[in-house]
Structures
1.
Amino acid sequence: MSNQIELRHLTYFLAVAQELHFRKAAEKLFISQPGLSRQIKQMEDILETQLFERNKKKVTLTPAGHYLKAEVEYIFNHLEKVERQLKLVGDGNSGELRIGFLGSAMQEVVPKLLLKIKERYPKVKTSLEELANFAQVDAVLNDQLDLGFVRVSRVPNTLEMKTVFTDTFSLVLPERYPMLTREFDGMERFAKEDFILFSQAYSPLYYDTIMSICQDAGFAPKISHKSVHAHTIFKLVENHMGIAIVPTSLQNGFQMRVKFIELKDIPQRAELSVIWKKEHTNPVLKNCMELLLEG
């Protein structure tokens, strides 16, 4: 018996760690359940540590098992990335850039970057995935994304973060709201209105900033609805379910019966930042970051 951990051990371990059920994991791997149990026991013997707690009712991960599961997932994500990069090089392409983004980044920043990449590095392939802020942070940390566009106040110290776009906020009202745009004289008059916000879990920084805008006007907003999509927020405003405050750039591309009042005279701004791993291994990332940050 080999006294070293092999890739097959990690594959078997991860299947059981994800399913927490030996029979289901064995079916997923197309091997017998006794054979899988032997492989896991062999792995635990080599590592000299228990990875699973097993009884007749359930299978659970030990603290060591939880730690190993996160590490193995990272290893496999990285191996997938290496495989993709090798295939692209073999096809004569320079590589692939995997980009995470918030919907608001698609208004200006991401499209401009994609056009620059296409013009300067036509052999680079890009893939896009719309994700919430913290999902992007986790994906960059775990090597599932090369960079992300987020609205967060801080990131783990293994990541870099740089502001790439600063926007004003705008008040969103139903088209027939009984006030002309030119009559706007401050947020104070909206103290009794229902507000529709992006979910706090989706973007805590945005949520706290909107709360501060209202607090500066002397009131705490009465929140009636939350969403993670601008279209949903605008639709709710259109149907008189409340009013909203959003980054001004979000008004582009939506044809809805709402009106926007830019809040130019408040100090709060909506900052969009790019994040990437300090110790990245993607050769494409450096060139594309230079394109993004060149102005």
2.
Amino acid sequence: MTAGGARRAAFASVAAALLLIFSKAAAYLASNSVAVLSSLIDSSVDLLASAVTLFSVLHASKPADRHHRFGHGKAEPLAALVQAAFVVGSAVLLTIQAGAKALDPQPIANEGWALAVMGFSIVITAILVSFQRRVVAATGSVAVAADSIHYASDLATNAAVIVALVLVKLTGSVWWDVGLGFIVGLWLVYSATRIARGSLDLLMDRELPEESRAEIKRIVHAHPDTRGLHDLRTRSSGTADFIELHLELEGELSLTRAHEIADVIEQQLRAAFPRAEILIHQEPAGLDDHRLDHQIARGA
């Protein structure tokens, strides 16, 4: 599954959000439930976030050009950061609505229909999240991953709404409805934090996980002509990874032989990291020069 899978996931996300908005709006108008309203607000934000995801996926899939030689992949973490802002905004709006109902409690009507709509929402959302996760596993799309986290949180909130509606029906107390509104608001803030943290890591060029860096070093050192490596730098743009390193070789080697060795190592790295752009600088072993590793060690 290529970038086309990410595009299909983004279009599916927009379609699912539209379907859920219409069904939840009807359920809220019929029931006057804050819990249902909380889910409706969340789905409305989902539509905006999914539209941003769609735009970012389409933009990020553009190839590198003369002005963006590293590609356009960072459009995805930027979109995920916008999603996080949308989620926080929906949490604030929901908290205000729940507070208003706490001051002026109103009974819930047509609980049965509201329950049916929320059950339908869970089925649609579960199908979408399952599809998104397959796409993320195949493409590594950060924007789709952020959208998936958002919709996965919807599964929990929709289930909580059903619990609240059942408790209101059983006890006759609308405070279950109000309390659930506040709980969903907190859950949305937590989801936004997860999305924002991952997006900022990419935008700030955080290194790949330590296990990935260890695997890179293992592959490089496994070549019999390798005498060492230093200044390994890695990062991800969201749609691609970047690996840069200084490869230490015997100083007497010809330029042609040094290139052949680096080319073999590059092929092995690409096999292990198929999304990666790889840059290898060859230099004589034991050369005493300025190194990023030394600079970082002094800073530590």
3.
Amino acid sequence: MNIKSLLLGSAAVLVAATGAKAADAIVIPEPEPVEYVRVCDAYGAGFFYIPGTETCLSISGYVWYQIGAGSYDNVNDTFGYYDTTLGDGFMKQVRTRLNFDARSDTEWGTLRAFIRLQATFGSGIGDGPVSVDQGYIQLGGLMMGYSESFWADSKNGGPSNYGSHTWGGLYYGYQQRHLIGYRFNGSNGFFAAVALEDDTLGGEGYMPDLVGKIGIAQGWGAVWARAAYDESFDDIVGVDGGFAAQLGLQYNIASMPGTSIRVLGFYADGDHSYNVGAPSCSPGCVTGGAEWSILGSLNYQINPTLGIQVGAQYFSDLYVAGTDVSTGTDAWAAEVGFVWVPVENFEVRTEVVYTDRGEFQGVAGGYDPDGTVSGYLRFTRYF
């Protein structure tokens, strides 16, 4: 009887325990998978995959602090404005820039979207307004949006973009525009680009301006030609559009890594959108850009962290502003710059520009200007 009771009791305990386990079971949930940010090396350093997508994103930019000065009795070419009320003193400037660059591969090539946010704080007190400085889409070689004119930068062709070796570049016709363009990079360094650019409903309204360039870039340097047609110029002075052209050459000195010589020649048949401009003068002088201009520039890399740039530009036969009427006035400009990078992503840059021009009989009488000197010291942190 004792053994029987023991067996029956043991069975009862097991049944009760089984029932309790079935009723009170604790289920521990599986942890959610964590998707860490992955590095994307398909487009160079700084890109990462947006979690859950195959789109690569890069966030970059810079902050600079700049101290500038100049002779204020004429236009200050470094800062690009005229003000006779300024006395002697320093002009301060802070600029902040943030770039968002998203890219992914498609059967039609790389699909890209680029956004640049920028704010510039001048000498006044107060915050600088943030604006969308650039925004464009690229699919393979096709590009559409708002960015630099292909006359200044087609995003291909290496040294064929911009002007001299300095940040300011002297006078090369920098401007930003709405555009639709196509860029081609072939074998052996061959490159080409063409763009239809907004003329802000000038001229016939529906006809855009046209820019094209072609060239070759290899280890020894590059050579290129560029041309542009300003369709809306015919509404200004009654001529049939405006034409501009540029020839350029850069030679890289093999025995001096980082050192190169650049020569650019410009022509324009009037003072229109694709004229590269010229040194400005007081309101009594009504000249614009030149018919011909030649620019020479040298970048000498003293060592991996220190470089010096020198350049000069001559302007032959300035036009009356906004017309194709010659004045017979010439001008010239010269520059010197230093760039020091003591540590990675930190740059110290200084540039000084001197401009001068011949005498001109303007609407306010004779004008025989003194030369204008302007320059700055800038500290930049890139990221």
4.
Amino acid sequence: MEFLDWLEDNFPRDFYDEAIAQRALRHLRNPEKWDLFSEDYVLQRTSEGRWYECLVYEILLELSLRTDTVRSVVRKGADAPGPHIRPHPGQNGFYYSEKGNLTVRGNGQTIAEMDLFFVDHHGNLGFFEVITSAMGLKEFHDEICYKKRLLGSMLGQETVPFVLVSSADVSGYSSIQQIISEPDNLVLITNPVEEIRDLIYEGSIRKRPTKSDPHPKFLDLARIGSGDAFDYRAVHDRNRERVVRAMLSSGDDGMEAVSSVINPLSKKIMLGTLDEAGVEAMLHDRAVRIKDAVFGADDVNREFPRVVIAFDIPAYTPVIYLKVRGKEEYLKIVQAHSGDLVFQSTRTPARSMAGFYEWLNEEKPMVTAEVAESYASLFLDMN
């Protein structure tokens, strides 16, 4: 692709432009700026990663003025227009996060987040991911494939260009090798972020950031496509119906029968709510460990007024949600490596989980004991 070829030749790996490095600071909130010089290593690295991402954005804005192969760059960070739209069920499409990050929402949930968006001269939307370490690369290839499939489906694009920019040399990792070997992808390795960060200093963050002039290639996220043609809830509900039918008629095919009917745009399938017989069928000879307490089927039926079963895609790992009596709270139960069902975390209407919580808390189809037994056999035993 022309833009990716041009970018490979022109993106600066040895980066020493202090003006652009300083300009990237304007996207960070004050605490994030000070964390760049924190003695707490975790805080420093987190803020460093955010700054490096914004630096790549500023470099892309600068480079876009030198080529006709990129038509526009989507605003982000401090350039994102307000106000922030809070998530709620029914939202589908592109939305800014509170920090001005670029996200895709499905039924009010964030189902994907991209670091940068651009539109090439063919009119295709492409995206960047920006990293500063090799952490979390095991599933990275699958994550990029999902985002490409998602954007292609939403926008009707056959081609979705992708660029990875990393300040760590990750080129030898298998997931990165897979990305390099596939078409319409580009991997760029720059100087280590620790070296580039020498371009800023504590005095930098005391300066009042100047508001940038409107960029001639700016594009607002709201102008990309439309959520009308992308109904994430409808995709999920069709998946659920197919999965339930497959679970009841799979015979010896098991998980293959389930996976063969799933539209991979779904990231989680909510199978439904169990009645008391369903809980007993699922937890036959099993227990749920919540902190120091162990709950059998009778205990779960007595203590929790609602039990919702689900599984995550593409890992096909089981997830069980237990509604806490008298509270706006669900306990998320997952399967440990030992095979035990254990408490992992809570789900509440807090701002970051509001869309998902509302969807989880809606009335769900009642799942029969037969489906619950099949769920246990397929997901709990196999995992």
